[in-house]
Design goal:
Elements lengths: L22 H4 L5 H12 L4 H4 L7 E11 L8 E11 L2 E10 L8 H5 L4 H14 L11 H17 L3 E8 L7 H8 L5 E3 L2 E5 L5 E8 L8
Parallel strand pairs: 3-4, 4-7
Antiparallel strand pairs: 1-2, 2-3, 5-6, 6-7
Length: 221
Amino acid sequence: MVGQRIFVPSRGAADWQRLLAEPDKQWRTGYSARTLAECWQDHNGLPPEIAVFFPQGPALLLAIPEYKVPLPGGRRESQSDVFALVRFGEKVSAVMVEGKVDEPFGPTLGEWLDKASDGKKIRLTYICERLGLKAPPDPSIRYQLLHRTAAAVIEAERFNTAEAAMIVHSFSRTRAWNADFDAFCSLFAATMEGAAKLVTLPDGRKLRLGWAQGEERYLHM
């Protein structure tokens, strides 16, 4: 529900299923929705492969599955697999997590913009302004990575956090679609801080980008 601000604590991974757009179709062993839920519930905190992107002993403050962030130019929100607030040292980061196994990142920007409506053009301009990118970016870039990252920046502004982050949490044994993520990161003038690519946003906040490799055992739970 757009605008929902009351969240019910999860009692286990199965509680995540009802939040999916197609619960019966998407909740399958070995697929990203269930695999990600099993991993995050099992750790009841930050999975170590996510924690490595933050310095100073990061701690998970909260995590909300299937989190929707409205964007201008249409009625469809950006729905992230997990939204998290992560504290590290004296800072807090608003983090969007995109879970993957072997699923692609959806259409390229060029495909998404084919015969684009005015609403799509408005949305892309907004996303690029938030991320400090020239519009339009290379048409081979995956649109999903753009709007997921913009959603992290929007929530960083709303929660007044020091940083934003977008992390792909992949359980693919072949690192499927990692090249698409690298191409997306190449849009930014980034520096490295540990495992994270660090970008300075137009509003002065830092943006962390990362590819986290999840444990294979969660594919079988």
